[in-house]
Specification:
- The protein is of the alpha/beta class.
- The chain folds into two domains: 115 residues, Rossmann fold; 104 residues, OB fold (Dihydrolipoamide Acetyltransferase, E2P).
- It contains eight helices and 17 strands.
- The chain is elongated and about 65 Å long.
- The termini are far apart.
- It holds the Pfam family Response_reg.
- It comes from Chryseobacterium taiwanense.
- InterPro entries: CheY-like_superfamily, LytR-like, LytTR_DNA-bd_dom, Sig_transdc_resp-reg_receiver.
- GO terms for molecular function: DNA binding; phosphorelay response regulator activity.
Length: 246
């Protein structure tokens, strides 16, 4: 199983290499440290079957490599942040490991890859992509910018996401932060037991609902913290009520 590591931090790269050495089926054929190096390597070499890739590199995101040089290999992303989950699974990703990587998580990711490959080794990439799409990933934390600083926000701390002037913000008890997501992307990756899209503008966290008001005309309004009031759109009222008791 020919494999490449894409990682710009040498200690992390060496650690992952040592971990992969425990799997006799893995043959490491390359180590890449930057987007520029990755584009060159994948342009000049036979693509491996499996790629372990960090996302944030010194000169950009590893996604840039595969957007410039499409690969038929499958990717296991290794990163400290999970805000890129949705994009990762659109680019041949079969798993998404958060650092620090645990032995059992690495082993599980490799076994998942092997389970996609038929015993006769005839790989049908379209069939594998269909299997990948069925994998449900849940966003648990988001990286936001505050000036020149970065902050990790746990999704359990977010009361709601809202769209304003074509930007989607996440709201905590402290303040709101702009994000890189669309509401549609968030709907696909947030924990559906906790978060619900009540209208075109808001996705709310059930933990922050203070009161629910109904009226004879089937209008449902939420007293919400820290927002004062949010209205559930009429076409979502039934789904909203079902979600509250699911």
């Amino acid at each position: 199983m020919k494999t490449v590591i894409i990682e710009d931090e040498k200690p992390a790269s060496r650690k992952l290499e040592r971990m992969l050495n425990e799997f006799p089926e893995i043959e490491l054929v390359g180590k890449i440290e930057s987007v520029e190096e990755g584009v060159q390597w994948f342009s000049e070499n036979e693509h491996p079957q499996l790629i372990f890739s960090d996302i944030v590199l010194g000169d950009g995101l590893s996604f840039d490599i595969f957007e410039k040089v499409p690969t038929k290999g499958f990717i296991i992303y290794t990163t400290a942040f999970d805000q890129y989950t949705l994009k990762a699974f659109k680019l041949n990703s079969i798993d998404y490991l958060l650092k620090p990587i645990l032995d059992e998580d690495l082993g599980g990711a490799i076994e998942k890859y092997k389970s996609f490959i038929p015993s006769d080794s005839s790989v049908n990439s379209q069939e594998i992509k269909q299997l990948i799409k069925k994998e449900k990933t849940t966003l648990s934390r988001i990286l936001v910018k505050i000036g020149y600083n970065l902050k990790i926000v746990q999704t359990q701390e977010i009361s709601c996401f809202f769209s304003e002037n074509k930007i989607v913000y996440l709201q905590t008890q402290e303040r709101s932060f702009p994000s890189d997501f669309t509401l549609d992307e968030l709907e696909e990756t947030l924990d559906e037991k906790k978060f619900f899209r009540v209208n075109r503008q808001f996705i709310i966290n059930s933990d922050y609902i203070k009161n629910i008001h109904t009226s004879p005309n089937y209008k449902v309004e939420l007293e919400f913290q820290p927002q004062e009031e949010i209205t559930v759109s009429r076409d979502r009222v039934k789904d909203f009520k079902d979600w509250l008791v699911s």
